[in-house]
## 1
Amino acid sequence: MSRVVVKTEGIAKIVPTAEGQLTILEGIDLEINAGESVAIVGASGSGKTTLLGILAGLDMPSSGSAWLGGVEITALDEEKRAKVRGEQVGFVFQTFQLLGSLTALENVMLPGELRGESGAEKDARDLLEKVGLAERFAHYPRQLSGGEQQRVAIARAFASRPNVLFADEPTGNLDSSTGHKVIELLFNLNKEYATTLILVTHDDRLAERCDRTIVLDAGRIVS
Amino acid sequence: MTPAMVLRLAWRDWRGGELGLLVIALMVAVGTVTAVSLFVDRLQQALLSESSTFLAADRYIGGSQEIPVEFRAAASERDIEMADTMSFPSMVFASDDRSQLVSVKAVSPGYPLRGVLRTADEPFTRGEPTTQLPQQGEVWLDSRLFPALGLSLGDRVEVGVAAFTVSRVLTQEPDRGGSMYDLGPRLLMRVEDVPATEVVQPGSRISYRLLLRGDDDALSELKDSLELKPCCWWRGIRESSPAIGSALARAESFLLLGGLLGVLLAGVAVALSANRYARRHYDHVGVLKTLGATPNQILFGYLLLLTVVGAVAAAFGLLIGAGLHLALVAILQSMIPVELPAPTMRPLALGAVTGMICVLAFALPPLLHLKNVSPMRVIRRDLGSAPPSQVLSYGAAIVGSLGLLIWYSGSLFLTFWTLVGTLSALLLFGLLANLLLRGGRVLGMQAGSGWRLALAGLQRRRRENTAQILIFGLAIMLLLILLLLRTALLDEWRNQVPDNAPNHFAMNITPDDVAEIGLMLDANAREQGGLYPMIRGRTVAVNGIDAKDWEEQHRPQRGEGPRLSSSRNLTWASEMPGENKLVAGDWWQPGDTRSMVSLEDDYAEDLGLSIGDVMTFDIAGQRVEAEVTNLRRLDWESMRPNFFIIFSPGALESFPATYMTSFYLEADQKRFLNELLGRFPTITVIEVDALIAQVKSIIDRVTQAVELVLGLVLASGCLVLIASIQASKDGRMSEHALIRTLGGSRKLITGSLAVEFATLGLFAGAVAVVGAEITVAILETQVFDLGVSFHPWLWLFGPLIGALIIFVVGMAGTRSLISSPPIMVLRGLN
Ligand SMILES: Nc1ncnc2c1ncn2[C@@H]1O[C@H](COP(=O)(O)OP(=O)(O)OP(=O)(O)O)[C@@H](O)[C@H]1O
Ligand SMILES: [Mg+2]
């Protein structure tokens, strides 16, 4: 049960700015096994979100390689990376990122529809029931509270049946008790679907619940 | 993404109001084009067919010999109706040996193919329309022949060696004539009777016409199939009546231009709303991509979506266009008494293709760009929204507009100038708008808080606002262009046939009668024109070369223009007649007794004559030499006496002359002619009132059409304004909602928005005025053959009106933003 699903070698991210080259990440080597839950922590601006983006295949590093589910995603073009994302990855974001013109149910159906599955709607209903929003199928994101929106987002993330779930400060926009409920939900579903969970957080309680913590400082892993 | 999924997404977008503006813009683009072109198409056909009454036919083949029988065979093969006319001058004798030179027209059954004859049983009345023709052995005579010959109905007259019964008074014939000097008093008879008169001898000057009536396509096919030259010529309304021809041509240009600007405006609206749609979908695409949608799937998805949306919008647009056009026709039924012919399919095709081109050229580029949105956008908003390729967007828009314009107007020239005007205006005014906005900041520093907020906002979004000023400016400019051109055209038309312009000419007045006739006219008619001496004469030599030889040398292929050696009416004058414009040389000084002559410009050019040439004339058997000292241009479209050749007083004063004058009579004053001609039987009166009335009625119709199209284009201009304000709403919304949450009062926001819109409008108006003045000046001179006119009032009112319009439309468009609680706005922004 120690299959490596996420791996990087010598990842660096350097962006050009008005003041010259800015190094955001440097020499990132890590391995994450299937079923593990990992928290990435660090001060604001230390490069957590940037790293997450690269691990998930949303962004490309300036140098180094990254593997996702055995595929070297840094060697793929955007077309193929998108396929890998569709098959392997789920996301939960700090700002929810639901589509405003779609209802809660339609948002959750989206991954299944994109893969052309026929059972997308039933799966989506089940998931929404699991996150406790059975009554809110037809509601639009703007009619939901922040916590409810995040629960829809979590349901959508699991609707893609991901091997790896990435979450960037999933509770950052929520009060602590709602945040707590969302965390419970996340871990429960994680266990149920046996996904690998990689999350970025400032919340110590959340980090403690993970199997492992990676600390970033100024773009380097310090522990 | 499967097609089914794309459709589902499209449906959800539509339900969420995301697609609304784009669909409406496309629908309006297709709808306006369809309605305008359906209407123009039918109106044009109607106007043309109404104008055809001037020919008494749709077209005719003219010749100085009998029209060949092959022509008739070819025409009847194509189901074209035919009728014959023959016109020639002849003497007519009354029983008491009084005689008069008349212009005989002999017609065959079927005449007139267009328009109607009117006859009366009393001279100088209006008469009744009739479908009859004179019976064989009968003639119908013009009113003025009755007093001149002392006739009444039922009397016998002789033409050549045959005698006829005068059975009716002919009061109106549709093809009364293009040239005024062809208007001798009319005698209408049957072609069948002509041989019996024996007036037609070899060498007689007879004008034969084969009148044609039929389908446009059949007619042009016929024209192409015939070997017309050298015996005959082909004529339509445009060639035979310059006044109507040019009014129609200009109206057509205007209607085309109007429709064309409508298309451009709609295109701008489509581009704007597609842009807004695309911008609002960056996040969508980012999320879809994190969920595994590949760039190609995104591309395919949005292409399909656009196709579906385009097809649906085009279908509804066509329906709306057709409906709108029917409504127009219904409303105008009272104004346009002409029967509108059935529309052709071209406008519908035009509408559908317009929809397609709008989609491809204006809506597609911003959507294409969506495929490049980076999925990182879901994490960091500023990523993955690099502006769409400018080359692609503008390139496609320009190519699309060009294609539409050329196809729509069928005129490269008009397209070229419209595009050049628009593009240079855009370039120049982008700069200007930017400068104006910079200047705005300085002002804002000393202003109250609403102002400061507004001007700061204008400043902050300078790029967007520059673009918006350009778009507002462009829309207002296009509307101003149409408005100014319309005014110029209407003025021109009104001048062409001014009210109370002389509508009768009296000729052959002997010097002894001048004074008495002058008194009679003063008492009974209005607006008496000038008095011109008239002397018959012909040119016999130029620079010592015989006139015939000169003509050989300078006009090798004999066209249909005036001939040098024919006998014509000469006049002399000390002052240049009004309406004439000197184009070369100088008019003679008073008191100069040298023998000089002034020529009409085209006449001189046709015959290779120039200033300094010495012309020799034969006048009453005497030789007169005169040097050409100046050239004039005449307004042939004006219904005034016009002379090719005018002498200086020194040259002709000594010759006996008769005089001509012109005067204006109301329809109910026409009996005065009876009195005049009874008293002075030798003078000739030419009535052009019917002709003038016809020209006027055509011009009135054309004017209405012009105004209508203007209205339609105005509507599509307003749509652009609304689309543009909608497109910029998101940015404004979030900003102002934020300000309100920060404690800004509703009044502050309202005030700030008001200032913002009014300022944008003011700048846009200024931009529009400059653009419109330049473009109109170019169009007036290059396309419409009008003089250049400038409009000082516009410089004041343009910006004010711009400010007012944008203010009103803008405030109406953002009312919801002000009245809804800010939380709704913020939540909706997601
Ligand atoms: N495209 C970019 N251009 C310039 N600077 C960037 C870019 N992306 C990230 N940065 C900078 O890199 C640093 C790391 O950013 P990142 O978002 O990864 O930090 P973070 O650890 O997620 O911070 P936070 O906890 O506040 O979310 C920041 O200083 C950020 O400003
Ligand atoms: Mg972050």
## 2
Amino acid sequence: MLEPERGLSLTIARVVQRLQGSSLHSQLERQARVSLHKPEIKLESLKEDIKDFLKTSGWEKKLQNAVYSELNVFPSPCHPAAPPEHIKEPLAYMRKAQGSWEKRILKSLNSMCTELNIPLAQKRPANEQKELLNKWNEMGTDEPDLSLFRPVYAPKDFLEVLMNLRNPNYENGEQPSFRNHLGLIQVPLKVKDIPELKEDFNELGLNIGQLGIDDSAQVPPEFFENEHVRVGQKVLAEQDSAAAQQYVRQGCPTALRADLWALILNISNQPEDILYYEQLKSNVIQHDLLVDSLIYKDVKLTASNDDYYFVFEDYLYQVLLCFSRDTSVLEHFTYSSATPPKSYIQGKLGMEEYAVFYPPNGVIPFHGFSMYVAPLCFLYHEPSKLYQIFREMYVRFFFRLHSISSHPSGIVSLCLLFETLLQTHLPQLFYHLREIGAQPLRISFKWMVRAFSGYLATDQLLLLWDRILGYNSLEILAVLAAAVFAFRAVNLMEVTSLAAAEAVLADLSTLKVMPLLQIFLFATVT
Amino acid sequence: MGGGLPVPVPAVGGGCRCRYRGDAVVGLRSPVPQVQEIVFRNFYTAFLSVRVQRPGPGGSRRWMTCLRDLCLMPCPHTEEGSQDYFCLHRHQMLCDLDQVTAMRFILRQPSPVWLHFTIEDLQIFPPGQKSPQKDFPSWLSQLTPPEQPASLHGELPDPEKVSTEVQQMWVLTEVIRARQAAARIGRFDVDGCYDVNLLSYT
């Protein structure tokens, strides 16, 4: 806890430090220098005149967007005495659990490596490099033998770990008592209740227009849709990130979505960004990683089998292979509870000058990882822009879905939020499912870990992800999961086994997301 | 690390079947007569009160409350704030922290779900020595002070408070020299080599 003034200075300093040396910084300097030739800049009031010039030419807005982006992504500064691991994750036992989980993953990857006798990384021979370069745009046609590879872990393995999370300072008695939670998650994290969620998500209220509800065929577009599109166009013209983030809470019109998301994530696809992507591509060509095979396998098993996403198979390789080589992703580990795996080249164990991260971006993909990218392919067709959008979405949101932390948008909190909402508002259903051995989280976990990608129809998924961006939080995933159970409660009350419950909830492709959320939050009698 | 004097604080609570958690009191001799800042790490304490023994009117030493029920955990049954770092500054206190001879930290944890609660890494700083600060860039020392908003009470801001704040900012900038912004180089290999065989567990 920090006093407001000191917290503000720390925040300002941190943002400045991060923006210093960025391309925006040099562009601003260049603009300021260029403006000196302009007649309206006078020597006596140089500072003020340049500031005014930057304001009118739109550069101040770009700076504002960059600052807003930093504030959104990085956590508020804690006390200076707090060590770096505290910023990653304040609770010691969660840090420990994440460390053990990571060790398991490393062991799994190492054993796969030794069994298959394949190095984790090696330089590609020249002829292979040439071949890969030639078929860069159609890597999906390749059919490598992936039968020996297996995903490092699947969501259900991760769920087992989360179920066993315990706070050693909490009275986890063997006897059932008020201290034990009825669900699978047994850690006492603070989660919001419906009144708090109603306040947080108040733009989803019954009396506020929503895309996904008020743009349906029965509703004349004059009531809401036309005006909403007009406002969206204005927001894009102003190029204001904060306004865009507020706007998308009511949903994005399809035609404007790609630009609005790029504005919120502060992605502008400058020449240097395209160059950076090309650099990553050349890294893919030069070095062959074991992780590439895991990515191939994942895409083949998940996205390629999906009716909506199989057409984007080639894009997925182009994004994910480059993602693995992107060292800028390492920055997110300052605020993520996870730590990137380390290794030593040429077998020189323990010698720091030969230490590297593996993979270069520190992220080992798991089964279903490619589904984070697939929906974005509907919006962006230029590989470098698609790549940047995905990378930003990952370092802002998706990384929280597969690491153990106490963050309100972390998967542990989302699971607890889901279970608490269900218990509180559908106690009979919760009790019934528990009695038949069908703990609800066992079914909804995979939805939340994938942010519902691959489970909802794509237009519905994009409406859901609009709200993730708009509220800068993943809590809506837990609310939707509970709302889906509420919607199918009648059928679920009649099932007598986990398998039957899974069958009732197997197909979510016909669900309309926004009405479900609205009814659960605002129209259910509590 | 800034000259703070670490003070050992025993854990309280115990794993007995005692239902009422309630209070724990930690008393200690004040290491310094003048206290500027108190820094500690929480461990499941919900509310903190601090009392200090100092000379009162008439010369005799008496106990005075300088902090009453500061909320460390907004929801005592849940984890929020349970292991956070806190910093208590002189000007947040209800009384002056001069000529302090002893201090009492009264820890409260009304929730029965926790086995132990205490505060850890307690450090007490006298004036003139700064607690460890994060790095700040040098430009911060060249900042023009923000325009003073029109004061609601028609009073001038307390010059001592302003000068301490400016002093603090100055020290922060001095601690941080011009740190180069971490430019993205993008290299993940070592001299062109990235032959990796096994991952390291340490």
